[in-house]
Sequence to fold (311 residues):
Amino acid sequence: MPLFSRHLLGLQGVPREDIQLILDTAVTFREVLERPIKRVPTLQGKTIVNLFFENSTRTRISFELAQKRLSADIVNFSTSTSSTKKGETFKDTVKNIEAMKVDMIVVRHASSGVPQYLTRISNANIINAGDGAHEHPTQGLLDMYSIREKFGKIEGLKVCIVGDISHSRVALSNIFGLKTMGADVSVCGPATMIPRCIEKLGVKVVHSIDQAIEQNDVLNVLRIQLERQAGASFPSLREYHNYFGITSERLEKFNKNIVILHPGPINRGVELSSDVADGPFQIILDQVTNGVAVRMAVLYLLGTLNTRESR
Fold:
């Protein structure tokens, strides 16, 4: 069954069967990562450009490893050494890269909408690795994969996204993907960090972290994005931790086997206390491993299979 689109720009509007196909395909690649030789020739001969205009550790390394595991040829773009520093426009940069006959572009950019714009000026398959405060679809997919791996399902689970909802592209991709797969989704955080009318996306809003812990199976805890001035939304990091930080005391209060995710990097002592970040409830490093498998699945499906509709 082919995918609906030849690009992955976000999870909004992506059909349930496409998400299911990606997650099922990732299971196979997760097994590949456990082999002594962690490489398959699936994308041999394909050239992929990693076009990262924002700093990244996990996402960039994860995509690079996924591409290498699939035997693709990789070109890494660095803004610090590119012609954009000489005044070249973004469009001309992309056009020159495409003239070198690349097949796929993985793009990360601080401005929302850049991946969509790339589909209008490039013939390559475009994968969004995070654009502004819009979406981060592969993070949403790997979060769903990790939840399904832990529980054996997604449908019917209660998942709460905690923290800086307003600035988070991870939150939107999780909301769209989890809702499509049948999860009951809520958000929790200070009122200043919850977008107005977010209930229109079909999520509930709670402002008590104790209530979020008590009522949910999964907490996906987001990083406070200080680089996006998120710190202006509350008096201090200490106060945020006092009211919304996940601590072992809070978890023990409800004596629950709750599962905790975090997309990283963690602000220890802010979103999570160190004992929770290293404790038995979190699956944070599982998310990192699963991210390589999920990105292998996305690259494979876009790079080798025809789509039902070009969009």
Notes: The first strand starts at residue 47 and ends at 52. The chain is about 40% helix and 15% strand. Strands lie at 47-52, 73-78, 104-109, 125-131, 158-162, 184-188, 204-206, 218-221, 259-261. The longest helix spans residues 284-304.
